[in-house]
Design brief:
Blueprint (H helix, E strand, L loop, with lengths): L26 E6 L4 E7 L12 E5 L1 E3 L3 E6 L5 E11 L4 E7 L9 E5 L2 E8 L4 E7 L4 H11 L16 H4 L7 E4 L11 H9 L3 E7 L22 E5 L1 H12 L5 E4 L1 H8 L11 E5 L1 E3 L10 E5 L17 H12 L9 E6 L5 E3 L4 E6 L16 E2 L2 E2 H10 L4 E8 L4 H10 L6 E5 L4 H9 L8 E4 L9 H14 L1 E7 L4 E5 L2 E6 L5 E10 H14 L6 H7 L5 E4 L10 H14 L15
Parallel strand pairs: 1-18, 3-12, 3-14, 4-11, 14-17, 20-23, 20-25, 23-24, 26-30
Antiparallel strand pairs: 1-2, 5-6, 5-8, 6-7, 7-10, 8-9, 9-10, 12-13, 13-15, 16-19, 17-18, 21-22, 25-29, 26-29, 27-28
Length: 598
């Protein structure tokens, strides 16, 4: 499928600079894929006509925060704009941002926003992207309030006017509850209390999900081949009550599931259980919607018109194939007394189409060992907290915003059972299970074959290291992007001596010694080459760093933490059981917010 198939004349003069008043008075076009009919004589307030008792309407309850900050650069006083993308670590007050102009914004620079709010640049993520750490002498809630006080609500990119104070409310939907978006799920802006009341009186179940919309929602598709387009990852949450309501409708022959906004589509279709029903979930998604995918959850879509060749317009096959889509756009724009965009409701959808576009990072987890030092008992499915050890390890990577694929290598005979077990534990289809080898190195080599070709960074992580923090995973990935290879390690603190025949020998200098940890990260081509050459030469090594060094590549040290120990012996297991509830707030929590202090 090509980007050019979603190109069309888009009359810029018909774009509304302000929302309709009242919001549900805007025009609504209804596309019925079964009858191939297009009705553009409706208003949004007519929406209840297309619902029956027991139908489910899913809305996004994310709440927009004023993400644009204005400030000055240290020393020069040069004016800058900082666009907040996502909070990485509340305790450390780390944020991913976009800076404009960014050319001279370097690591270590101080940025000033207010008398009592400053920030330091601690990392360069892209040409304009930075990671900053806010300095603020108060609790986090006061920091959020300060951002609300001095920040500006960014308007959608198709709105060409100055920001007004009223825009803070105009671009907040009536469902907004959970702060975290830089843009509103715009389709829901057309709802009113009166319209919602009529839907509920009719017996329609209106249920929420949360997907925190990032800046990439409206960005154009920049490649001709849609299968190569990458979308930004976004955090989502599906409550248990929402999953139950959706699944009841799916099991009924009489009721439908309608998504309000393409953001809802992304969340729902990213959270499939093994039996293709919706599961409660809190994770991240980089799902990109384009043709030739059969939906499992969403049956109808309410969406706004979108700009040509944008990420969202590629969702139009949810409504209709491209030829009919062009006809629908012509109907919507022609002889229009009111500006667009305005909502479009699909009355039926027979073959809507998303596909997951992987992020560039994959994690390989060798888990084919037999646990001989644990008394011969396989430790992967021993319970740590409320879940098996292996699941606790995989959950961190499943929920990490940088990770797009996970490949787990287990004993060949156990592949079907482990696959079923992981699905039953709620892990998504992004985690693949493959057959391991006779030793760790062979298992990693087998797992690498299951990593998609487009992945650029591969992390190798021990299946028995459940205490690594998400922040440390991020540090390794960032160092790999800069240097090509990196690994966590902890400087040796104890005195080391040689010994023989139960007697001490000389002391070994420890000033340049490190205890290796995982994840160990590498450029994809480097780790592939290292394992290929090791197999050809019959070389075995204790870790992947040694194999990559053998090929002449340097590996950077990323300082680890003593808590990231490997569970190897029964004593290790006893310690892990005791420390789990102390170091991890909840078993399911994404630990980006975990402090690195003891």
């Amino acid at each position: 499928m090509k980007r050019s198939e979603f190109s069309y004349e888009y009359p810029e003069e018909l774009i509304a600079e302000f929302p309709a008043d009242p919001p549900d008075s805007c025009r609504m076009m209804v596309v019925d894929r079964d009858s191939h009919s297009i009705n553009h004589d409706k208003q949004f307030r007519d929406l209840p006509e297309y619902f029956s008792e027991g139908d489910v309407l899913v809305v996004n309850d994310t709440k927009v925060y004023p993400a644009r900050l204005y400030g000055q650069k240290q020393k020069t006083g040069a004016d800058i704009q900082v666009f907040l993308l996502r909070e990485l670590n509340p305790e450390s007050r780390l944020w991913d941002v976009v800076v404009d102009p960014a050319r001279k914004i370097r690591i270590g620079n101080k940025l000033y926003f207010d008398d009592d709010l400053t920030a330091e640049v601690i990392d360069n993520t892209t040409s304009r992207g930075r990671t900053i750490r806010f300095s603020f002498d108060d609790v986090n809630e006061a920091l959020y309030q300060k951002i609300r006080d001095i920040g500006e609500t960014p308007l959608p990119p198709y709105i060409d006017r100055e920001v007004e104070e009223e825009d803070r409310e105009r671009y907040q939907t009536m469902f907004a509850e959970n702060r975290g978006a830089v843009a509103a799920p715009a389709t829901a802006l057309h709802f009113t209390e009166e319209l919602l009341g009529r839907l509920e009186e009719k017996g329609v179940h209106v249920v929420p999900i949360t997907l925190h919309i990032g800046r990439g929602k409206s960005k154009p598709v920049d490649v001709e081949d849609l299968s190569k387009h990458r979308t930004d990852s976004e955090e989502y949450h599906i409550p248990e009550e929402t999953a139950e309501a959706v699944n009841r409708a799916l099991q009924s022959d009489q009721n439908t599931v309608t998504a309000c906004d393409t953001t809802v589509v992304r969340a729902l279709e990213s959270s499939l259980s093994a039996d293709e029903t919706l599961k409660p979930d809190h994770s991240w998604t980089d799902l990109f919607v384009y043709p030739e995918y059969e939906f499992k959850i969403v049956e109808r879509l309410i969406t706004n018109f979108h700009r040509p060749e944008s990420t969202n317009i590629s969702s139009s096959p949810l409504v209709t194939r491209s030829s009919s889509n062009r006809r629908a756009v012509d109907c919507g724009a022609g002889e229009s007394p009111q500006p667009v965009p305005r909502p479009s409701l699909t009355a039926s959808m027979d073959a809507p189409t998303p596909a997951a576009n992987a992020r560039e990072v994959a994690v390989v987890v060798p888990a084919a060992g037999r646990g001989r030092r644990m008394g011969g008992t396989s430790k992967q499915f021993r319970m740590l907290g409320e879940r098996p050890l292996l699941v606790q390890v995989l959950l961190l990577f499943e929920q990490h915003p940088m990770v797009g694929h996970i490949v787990v290598a287990v004993p060949e005979a156990e592949v079907p059972d482990v696959t079923d077990r992981l699905h039953a534990e709620g892990l998504s289809a992004r985690t693949a299970v493959v057959s391991g080898g006779q030793h760790r190195q062979a298992s990693v080599r087998h797992a690498l074959r299951g990593v998609p070709d487009r992945v650029e960074v591969v992390l190798v992580h021990d299946a028995a290291r459940p205490f690594v923090s998400a922040a440390q995973v991020q540090e390794v990935v960032q160092e790999v992007r800069t240097a090509g290879a990196a690994a966590l390690a902890v400087p040796v603190a104890d005195t080391l001596r040689r010994g023989a025949d139960e007697r001490f020998g000389d002391t070994v200098p420890r000033d340049r010694l490190y205890r290796m940890q995982t994840p160990q990260g590498f450029r994809r081509d480097w780790i592939d080459e290292a394992h290929r050459r090791a197999a050809d030469d019959g070389v075995r090594a204790t870790d992947d760093v040694a194999l990559v060094q053998r090929c002449g590549h340097d590996v950077s040290i990323v300082t680890g933490h003593c808590r990231n120990f490997k569970i190897t012996t029964p004593d290790d297991w006893a310690l892990a059981q005791r420390l789990w509830t102390t170091w991890v707030d909840t078993p399911d929590r994404l630990r980006l917010s975990t402090s690195e202090s003891d």
